[in-house]
Amino acid sequence: METVKSILAAKGADVVSVGPDALVIEALQIMAERNVGAVLVMDAAGDIVGIFSERDFARRIIIKGRSCDVTKVREIMTNKLTYAEPGTSIADCMNIMTTNHFRHLPIKEKGKVVGVISIGDVVKALVKDQEKVISEQAFEIGQHERRSPGAV
Asked: Structural domains in the chain?
C-alpha cells in the first residue's frame, strides 16, 4: 500500500499559506491562483495556527452573511488540526479524513510541515493501488490457466 510520501513525490510538497491577519478575499485569491481548496494559516514564526478552506468560506462567510473584504482569516479558519506523517498509509489517511469530515490533511515530518494532501489525492492513490492489485491478480489467473491441463 502506498504512503503519503508517494503522493507528495508525485504532486510536490508545495505548501500554500497565508497569515492569520490576511483578509478572506486575499486568501481566496491565492487559492484561486494556485488552484487549491485550502491554505494553511501560518504565523510570523512559521508555525501553523489553522487551515482555511472553501468549506470555511461557505459556512462562515456566505451562510452567515459576512463580508470577505473585511473579515480576517483568523476569524473563520479551522484551528483544530489533525496531521499525518509521510509514512502514513493512504488507507489511514482516508480513514482520518472521512472520520473527521475534512478534505485537506497537513503533513508533518519532525515537527515541520512538508506538504498538504487532499481527499482527491487520496482517492486517486487508492484507485491506482486497486488497479495495480487487479492487474497483478489478472496476470496470476492467466498464468494459472496456462498451466492447467486442457489449456490452449
From this structure: 4-147 (3.10.580.10)
- Model-level pTM? 0.83
DSSP assignment, residue 62? I
Please give the chain's pLDDT, 152 residues, in tens: 689 999 999 988 889 999 999 999 999 999 999 999 999 999 999 899 999 999 999 999 999 999 999 999 999 999 999 999 999 999 999 999 999 999 999 999 999 999 999 999 999 998 987 877 787 777 778 777 777 776 55
Q: How far is the C-alpha of 36 from the C-alpha of 29, rounded, in Å?
A: 10
